[in-house]
Design goal:
Forms a complex composed of PDGFRL, TNK2 and GRB2. It is built from two helices and 29 strands. It is mostly beta strands.
Length: about 375
């Protein structure tokens, strides 16, 4: 049976009690109350908002034996020595792979573009090849190409090699600069996905916890210092354990950087601002900056248009400024021998790094 009430609510499956008589018309009235009933509004999915974000389409395939294909997982574990072949669908494909393979122009790596797909092949793989392999479709107009963010593919490959838990380093000792305004990475990456990795200070000897607040471990990068400061400096190393084996990485010297990033902080100084005929003159251009940031110098000088012979020498070194702060001092010296009247005037030095450039000048007069 179905009973209707005056609020318009449908109640199904309710039977009248046997011991009660049916109510007469008008008896089933409900007394008015002040209670407000909030109508339920059915939730409707916004199709436009759901589809507004571009969907990323994986275009990468891994070629297996006997001509079989599969989409590679986010991480792969392969034995060193195996051949890796990756294909990405598209007529113009860009590739990225471990920098180690680019540094030495390795002949084991082959990248080809076919009519419908790009192909990357790596033969005789080693543990040093461990890293990210990625591809993307290039959208080109004339000579300008850009990455199609919606059509990409990537996989991180661990190449496991007997006796190598860490990705080999080209040196036994490396320097990591701690800059207060950016992350620093101790790059002890492993070749075994299941390896347990810990960070240790050499002196005083102790384990440095990766607590997720100051330091985190990223298997693709190493130990990441999120907000480096001077207390982090010192010599550290990593320890890996896997399959009952353990190994210690190379050592890393952590140096704190005193100079913030930005265009070069440049000064210029002449050995003398008044020079007699026949004397020698030197003008020194100096930059104080971050230890790992290179500086390029260019000069403009009075005798340049007359092709006046000069000597220009560029040098750099690291200096310690107390409290463990390390700075790179880069210098360029221009020397003019047998000073003449055409050598008098402005000596202009321009110092440039990745953040910008600074130009300074000084005058040298004929005495």
């Amino acid at each position: 049976s179905t009973v209707w009430v005056s609020l318009g609510t449908l109640v199904t499956g309710q039977h009248l009690p046997k011991n009660k008589r049916p109510k007469e018309p008008g008896e089933n009235r409900i007394k008015p109350t002040n209670k407000k009933v909030k109508p339920k509004i059915p939730k409707i999915k916004d199709r436009d908002s759901a589809n507004s974000a571009p969907k990323t389409q994986s275009i990468m395939m891994q070629v297996l034996d006997k001509g079989r294909f599969q989409k590679p997982a986010a991480t792969l574990s392969l034995l060193a020595g195996q051949t890796v072949e990756l294909r990405c669908k598209g007529s113009r494909i860009g590739w990225s792979y471990p920098a180690y393979l680019d540094t030495f122009k390795d002949s084991r790596l082959s990248v080809k573009q076919n009519e419908r797909y790009g192909q990357l092949t790596l033969v005789n793989s080693t543990s040093a090849d461990t890293g990210e392999f990625s591809c993307w479709v290039q959208l080109c107009s004339s000579y300008i190409c850009r990455k199609d963010e919606a059509k990409t593919g990537s996989t991180y490959i661990f190449f496991t090699e007997k006796g190598e838990l860490f990705v080999p380093s080209p040196s036994y000792f490396d320097v990591v600069y701690l800059n207060p305004d950016r992350q620093a990475v101790v790059p002890c990456r492993v070749t075994v996905l299941s390896a347990k990795v810990t960070l240790h200070r050499e002196f005083p000897a102790k384990e440095i916890p990766a607590n997720g607040t100051d330091i985190v471990y990223d298997m693709k990068r190493g130990f990441v210092y999120l907000q480096p400061h001077s207390e982090h400096q010192g010599v550290v190393y990593c320890r890996a354990e896997a399959g009952g084996r353990s190994q210690i990485s190379v050592k890393y010297q952590l140096l704190y950087v005193a100079v913030p990033s930005g265009p070069p902080s440049t000064t210029i100084l002449a050995s003398s601002n008044k020079v007699k005929s026949g004397d020698d003159i030197s003008v020194l251009c100096t930059v104080l900056g971050e230890p790992d940031v290179e500086v390029e110098f260019t000069w403009i000088f009075p005798g340049q248009k007359d092709e006046r012979p000069v000597t220009i020498q560029d040098t750099w070194r690291l200096i310690h400024r107390g409290l463990g702060h390390t700075t790179r001092i880069s210098q360029s010296v221009i020397t003019v021998e047998d000073f003449e009247t055409i050598d008098a005037g402005y000596y202009i030095c321009t110092a440039q790094n990745l953040q910008g450039q600074t130009t300074v000048a000084t005058t040298v007069e004929f005495s």
